[in-house]
Specification:
The protein has 9 helices and 11 strands. With about 325 residues, the protein is α+β, with helices and mostly antiparallel strands. Helix 4 runs parallel beside helix 8, helix 4 runs parallel beside helix 9 and helix 6 runs antiparallel to helix 9.
Amino acid sequence: MSDYSKQKVYLTDINREPNTGGRKQARIELRLLKEACSLKIEPDVLPKEENVAPDTNLFCVTAYCTADNYDLKNLYKYLKKNSLCSKVSMYFGECLYTRMSFGGEGDEGLDCFFYEYGVVVCWGMDANQESMIVKLVSKHEENPYEASDIEVESFKYGITENPFIMNDIIYLNSENHFSKMVVSIAIAQSVKLDYFENLVDNTIEDVKEFPEEMEREGKVSKNRREILKMIGKLHRLRFNLNLGSNILDEPEFVWDYPAFSPLYETCKRYLDIKHRADLLNRRCDVINGILEILSENTNRSNVEKFEVVLIMIVLGNVLLIILLMALMYYIRLKW
């Protein structure tokens, strides 16, 4: 695999190697086998399909999923006062754009896009500059993730006449930040899905032994309270994926500027956003079905135990009455 497809990012406050589980790594490798996808950036230009990477300088594009949400309003106010930000703009309340200037040469392409569902996408920065951005946004996170849970996706980008995406390299026809923002939306959705996929994988690890345990023992070691907590965790995940955020919705920017829709749809298709989201929901359905059966079984077991206790109480009362009657009969005989 070529160097640019590696997902290694060196940051002081994040693990040296971000989460690249088997499924994620396999998906990255499959992307590298795809044909070039032309990117239609301007409505009056029809990009030609390229099969050979053009000879152009390549720069980093890195996305970090660091929290459930960002407080974009307060982050906007903070960045407006920050001397590192030469330009700050908010788009439809869902994306915050800033042009960064770290005082070095070649700062004209250093763009950052912050999305309300806890993802930041950095363009043209080195590892140290990205680390500064991650630390900067940490002050405005809601439900921040542990360093080990932070998801990272890395790409490269360059400028060429006919834009396309291939081998995780994004070729644009200019440094226009609107084009970068649309591409960043798809990348941000992808890295957020990485986080949800990791949560589902962890849940699968928790429940995969239950069917075998039921078959072997006729019961599971978890009590109903623990199972209900797992069901609640699963429903919270599905709510955040489908309702609690807009990561699967068409962005307002693309809705208002349909000329960018082909660019967004191409990136979304390249990153398999829809397929992965559908698969994630189906896996949640399967897990939920297993947990519901276990919950009903545990509840039935509790009812059976209650019935046994109730029967024992009734039998005890009957025996007590019999003893009392026998005692009374004995006393009468004595008198």
